[in-house]
Design goal:
Elements (H helix, E strand, L loop, with lengths): L1 E7 H12 L11 H12 L6 E9 L8 H17 L4 E4 L1 E10 L1 E3 L5 E3 L22 E10 L1 H14 L5 E5 L6 H8 L4 E5 L21 E4 L2 H5 L6 E3 L2 E2 L5
Helix pairs in contact: 4-5
């Protein structure tokens, strides 16, 4: 069984950071290939598995605002390629922009609650009259990664439709991938790994017997990360960052 692996790099990174802790060492130098191999062996019913490809979808960090992050990302990407832990790295873009939005606080269910004008912070008009209930607007810098979900979907569908793989593993909890994943399940068994601390996106649910069947779902655990690390020294010029 030839298995293709398709990874949303930013979804995996921020999910793993939530699982292990932002400043905690020992999880970022991740060996993608061996991690997925062991997850398939333990959590699926697939047999005769050969990892055909590991496609890692990410975007380059800007060195202008985060030079250290850019250096660390660069050495990790080179380590993935050098060890064949990822057979293909597919790049989206990293976009910085200014956006305007209503000021809000997080509600008990995680949804935004707009902050309105009220004492002790009140808006007054030009005649010095109170304007209770007015909405505060904020202009903020926003940095976001674009394109990884599209690249995951594209590589998954191309490989399934061309017969390059007999099964697929997708590492993401992005509900935008619901359509391509559901489409793929009609043709090959699909394993879905939720790399986040949140519940699985509802649109990514399904039936193990749907389509061709033999599908499975699982959540990334801290042991998956800590137990699957690349060698600290990959080559004389590729070494794990000191704080990783």
């Amino acid at each position: 069984m030839r298995v293709g692996v398709y990874i949303d790099g930013y979804n995996l990174y921020y999910g793993a950071r939530g699982i292990c802790g932002r400043s905690t060492p020992g999880w970022r130098w991740l060996d993608l290939r061996t991690m997925v191999e062991d997850m398939i062996a333990v959590r699926s019913k697939w047999g005769g598995v050969v990892i055909e490809n590991v496609t890692y979808c990410t975007a380059r960090i800007s060195g202008t605002s985060n030079p250290e992050g850019q250096r660390e990302q660069d050495v990790y990407l080179r380590a993935l390629a050098h060890t064949n832990s990822a057979t293909q790295i597919s790049y989206g873009t990293y976009v910085a922009r200014v956006t305007t939005a209503p000021l809000a606080r997080k509600g008990p269910n995680g949804k935004p609650i707009l902050v309105k004008s009220d004492w002790p912070i009140m808006i007054q008009d030009s005649s010095v009259q109170d304007v209770p209930g007015a909405t505060f607007m904020a202009s903020v810098a926003r940095r976001e990664e674009k394109g990884s979900d599209v690249n995951v979907a594209s590589h998954l569908l191309i490989d399934v439709l061309t017969g390059a793989v007999d099964a697929a593993v997708v590492i993401s909890n992005d509900s935008d991938l619901a359509f391509p994943i559901n489409f793929a399940r009609q043709r090959v068994p699909v394993g879905l790994v939720n790399p986040t601390t949140g519940v699985r996106a509802g649109k990514l649910a399904g039936d193990p017997a749907e389509g061709v069947g033999n599908h499975w779902w699982t959540r990334l655990e801290s042991a998956d990360l800590y137990e699957h690390q690349l060698p600290a020294i990959v080559s004389p010029r590729i070494r794990k960052p000191a704080l990783w």
